[in-house]
């Protein structure tokens, strides 16, 4: 029995720092570890093993096949780069991978590998599994970001500052209300992401599941159970709304984080100096500078994520029972969105936790704008009104927990 050499991590949740010169600026090591090439290969192996176990539970393949295949695939090593090169002729990495799997398992269970499934079933489910494994660190970062924004809002609920509209001085507000707005956006993004259904996919060659002799929907349900994914109730190989919702939710995370970053960039300008990053970056030519690098990288992610989400939506037009390229077009942008959202969530959490707030500078800038900004309403009235809204945003949050 031949073996296939591997470079896969034994744990998809292990942190990974990508080797790309520029890509390393984008992500979070834990999320990157869940969606990197090795993790995707591991997810495809887990899906193939899970399918055999599911079919064994239904009596469709021989007893013991699930354990034998799971054991063999747990030790299987696959070089992702080599697999990618071999995938060119078939247009899918699943085709050469299945050949490797059948070579790697005992002869008496070889016929149980990949029964009734197609390449799209395996890759769709594997990408959903990667997303599932990325969700825990991503949601943990978003929770930390929400907590940090909430603390700032509560601490500065009555800290007066100048509001700016259309880039110009407007009326008094409070920094607490601004931070409450950050919290609201981040919390909404977190809840939308939590509401995304990450489901298994199994449709067979044409979506009929006919290979399972009337037990096809049962096979789908048990595969979902084996992989820890949701049971979609029916194949969704050309109905891509789940992928669209995931892409939109991930892009929303980057935009919510970049809203915070945009305000920080403007308020950290030396001429304003109301807040500052706790860990600013330096300059190669101007040693006096304290560059808001985290905010810059957050804005960079948000500039790209909507385009990636748009690419996923544009790829949603699938012809008949198997798309001619649209399905393939989803793979890279979905993984890129997971990486960008993971990096944005971790970065905004760190940014908010270390944010330096200068309440005195806020008051100076407010006073310098002139009394005419008060338009007949006392500063105290503005502060009280702003603080009340900030309080409402924060106290309404528990009722919205878990709501997409």
Helices, strands, pairings?
Elements: H1 29-35, H2 37-57, H3 65-74, H4 80-87, H5 94-104, H6 119-155, E1 160-165, E2 168-174, H7 175-194, H8 216-227, H9 241-267, E3 275-276, H10 293-314, H11 326-353, E4 356-357, H12 359-368, H13 379-400
Antiparallel strand pairs: 1-2, 3-4
Helix pairs in contact: 1-6, 1-11, 2-3, 2-6, 2-8, 6-7, 6-11, 7-9, 7-13, 9-10, 9-11, 10-11
Task: Explain the overall architecture.
The protein has 404 residues and is mainly alpha-helical. It has one domain (23-400): Fumarase/aspartase (Central domain) (Fumarase C, Chain A, domain 2), CATH 1.20.200.10. Helices cover 58% and strands 4% of the residues. The protein has helices at 29-35, 37-57, 65-74, 80-87, 94-104, 119-155, 175-194, 216-227, 241-267, 293-314, 326-353, 359-368, 379-400; strands at 160-165, 168-174, 275-276, 356-357. A two-stranded antiparallel ribbon has the order 1-2. Strands 3-4 form a two-stranded antiparallel sheet. Strand 1 and strand 2 (168-174) form a beta hairpin. Helix 9 (241-267) packs parallel to helix 11. The relative contact order is 0.14.
């Amino acid at each position: 029995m031949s073996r296939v050499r591997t470079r896969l991590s034994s744990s998809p949740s292990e942190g990974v720092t990508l080797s790309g010169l520029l890509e390393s600026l984008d992500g979070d090591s834990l999320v990157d570890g869940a969606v990197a090439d090795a993790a995707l290969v591991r997810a495809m192996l887990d899906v193939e093993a899970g399918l055999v176990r599911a079919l064994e539970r239904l009596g469709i393949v021989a007893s013991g096949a699930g354990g034998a295949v799971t054991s063999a695939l747990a030790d299987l090593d696959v070089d992702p780069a080599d697999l990618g090169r071999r995938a060119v002729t078939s247009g899918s990495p699943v085709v050469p991978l299945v050949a490797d799997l059948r070579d790697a398992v005992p002869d008496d269970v070889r016929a149980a590998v990949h029964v009734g499934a197609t390449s799209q079933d395996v890759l769709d489910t594997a990408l959903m599994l990667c997303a599932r494994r990325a969700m825990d660190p991503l949601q943990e970062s978003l929770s930390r970001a929400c907590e940090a924004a909430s603390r700032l809002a509560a601490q500065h609920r009555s800290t007066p500052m100048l509001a700016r509209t259309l880039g110009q001085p407007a009326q008094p507000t409070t920094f607490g209300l601004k931070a409450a707005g950050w919290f609201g956006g981040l919390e909404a993004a977190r809840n939308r992401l939590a509401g995304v259904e990450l489901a298994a996919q199994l449709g067979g060659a044409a979506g009929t599941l006919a290979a399972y002799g009337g037990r096809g929907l049962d096979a789908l349900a048990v595969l979902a159970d084996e992989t820890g994914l949701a049971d979609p109730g029916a194949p969704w190989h050309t109905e891509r709304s789940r992928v669209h919702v995931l892409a939109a939710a991930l892009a929303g995370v980057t935009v919510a984080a970049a809203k915070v970053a945009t305000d920080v960039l403007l308020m950290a300008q030396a001429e304003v100096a109301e807040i500052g990053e706790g860990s600013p970056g330096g300059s190669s030519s101007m040693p006096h500078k304290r560059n808001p690098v985290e905010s810059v990288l957050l804005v960079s992610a948000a500039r790209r994520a909507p385009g990636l989400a748009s690419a996923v939506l544009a790829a949603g037009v699938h012809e008949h029972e198997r798309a001619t390229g649209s399905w393939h077009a989803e793979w890279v942008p979905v993984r890129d969105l997971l990486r960008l959202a993971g990096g944005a969530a971790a970065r905004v959490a760190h940014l908010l936790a270390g944010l330096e707030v200068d309440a005195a500078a806020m008051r100076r800038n407010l006073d310098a704008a002139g009394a005419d900004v008060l338009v007949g309403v006392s500063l105290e009235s503005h502060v009280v009104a702003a603080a009340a809204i900030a309080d409402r945003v924060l106290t309404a949050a528990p009722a919205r927990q878990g709501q997409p």
